[in-house]
Amino acid sequence: MTLYWTVLAAAIVTSILGQTLLKTAAGSADFVSQLFDPRTLIGLFLYGGAALLYIVALRRIPMSVALPCTAVSYVAAALIGHYGFAEPLGAMQLGALALICLGVVMLALA
After folding, report:
1. What confidence tens digit (pLDDT) does each residue in 7-25 have?
2. 3-state DSSP call for residue 37?
3. Distance of CA 36 to CAs 33, 51, 84, Å?
């Protein structure tokens, strides 16, 4: 069972990396340039790889547990956005992230 939790963690990290690369390519001059930017292509590859890893994790982890665990990517995305891309992270966003974390903990304990 530990293998499947490791695969789920790898899916989450891979997804976060893919999304971060997609964001870095978003500064391209136009959509076509962005679409063929190597960062976009690698980001899409990683995003697809994350989906495949998630499928493997679902073989042994119930979806009602696995999917809420992926919410950690929302927290990571907010932190990466703030520290890596100078996006705002105010009280409202922090409160929302706290609610997400609380919800995941509540689901895990249920």
Report:
1. 999 999 999 999 999 999 9
2. coil
3. 5, 21, 22
